[in-house]
């Protein structure tokens, strides 16, 4: 069923249609929130706020078929709001998001497969921009470039080249992490 | 490098491998999946929307660049036709949030703080339009205001959802 039709049914209160939309887009929203380096609690809040905001606007979406882009933009804006709120709750020197707000506790010990562990270690060394983009592109189901563009405010034309560069960097980081041990506290 | 510990040459396949790792390390929490499906209960049928027009968390950024930090509660303003809802939020002693609000122009109302997780906190705005709610959990919040009208009827206004 087309997304626009699911939106119309959800707006009329069809629970099954709503659940289909959540099923289709929750991975995208989670990747946007985590890609913006929110901790799990804040990411959960952002995802839920995004669903609430969809219900707030479900009758007046301009283009229901482009729902993914709308959701990605809404989640992104909410991430920015939460990050700014958090950065104001603690004194900071320059107004930037402190690096240690990055979720660093993702449990690499869950990865028993050596290749997976090395891939994750390599991923953790990527720039924030690459991590954010690759997390989105790796979400299930894979988002369209329209949705990625909306979530990251990145021109559609630069997504492909950036994806290529980030994956190339990931390959090099993987190769390095296969040779040298990871930093303290990471999976060995 | 030992055999078997290589990555696929194809970029699409590499992303699939990364997806597999992310799903192991950082899956969508079950609570998030459940809450998202339950959110349809918050679908609004008859209320007017009061849009967010000011949020000190966002609007104070330039100020913060100068001062390094912004002290005091977070202030929010929502607007609907001929009604402004001013809200300040700050942590309360119990680990939740204290919401202090003002309806402009002043009027009495039943105010329900709706939490995206399903909780409700109901309070009353006095005839000066003042209300406060304690123990509001962090997360998605919207205020539903049933305003007393002179005619004895009421008007229902809901603020835009946002994360507090």
Key features of this structure:
heterodimer, A: 188 residues, globular, B: 164 residues, ten-stranded mixed sheet, elongated
Instruction: Tell me the structural class of chain B.
Output: alpha+beta
Biggest interface, and residues per chain? A-B, 69 and 55 residues
**How can the largest sheet of chain A be summarized?**
none
Helix coverage percent of residues of chain B? 10-25%
Estimated helix fraction of chain A? 55-70%
Mean pLDDT across every amino acid position of chain A: 85
Low-confidence stretches of chain B: none
Q: Approximately how much beta-strand content do the residues of chain B carry?
A: 35-45%
Can you describe what's shown?
The complex is a heterodimer of chains A (188) and B (164). Chain A is mostly helical and 188 residues long. Chain A has helices at 3-11, 15-35, 40-57, 67-89, 114-124, 128-137, 145-152, 156-179. The longest helix of chain B is centred in the N-terminal third of the chain and has 15 residues, at 11-25. The termini of chain B are far apart. In chain B, strands 1, 2, 3, 4, 5, 6, 7, 8, 9 and 10 form a ten-stranded mixed sheet that branches. The radius of gyration of chain B is 22 Å and the shape is elongated. With 164 residues, chain B is an alpha+beta fold. Chain B has helices spanning 11-25, 30-38, 56-59, 61-67; strands at 48-55, 74-80, 83-91, 97-104, 109-115, 120-125, 130-136, 140-148, 154-159, 162-163. The model of chain B has no long low-confidence stretch (mean pLDDT 88).
Question: Summed up, what is this model?
Answer:
The complex is a heterodimer of chains A (188) and B (164). Chain A has 188 residues and is mostly helical. Chain A is built from eight helices and no strands.
Q: How are the SSEs ordered, and which strands pair?
A:
The complex is a heterodimer of chains A (188) and B (164).
Chain A: H1 3-11, H2 15-35, H3 40-57, H4 67-89, H5 114-124, H6 128-137, H7 145-152, H8 156-179
Chain B: H1 11-25, H2 30-38, E1 48-55, H3 56-59, H4 61-67, E2 74-80, E3 83-91, E4 97-104, E5 109-115, E6 120-125, E7 130-136, E8 140-148, E9 154-159, E10 162-163
Parallel strand pairs in B: 1-9
Antiparallel strand pairs in B: 1-2, 2-3, 3-4, 4-7, 5-6, 5-8, 8-9, 8-10
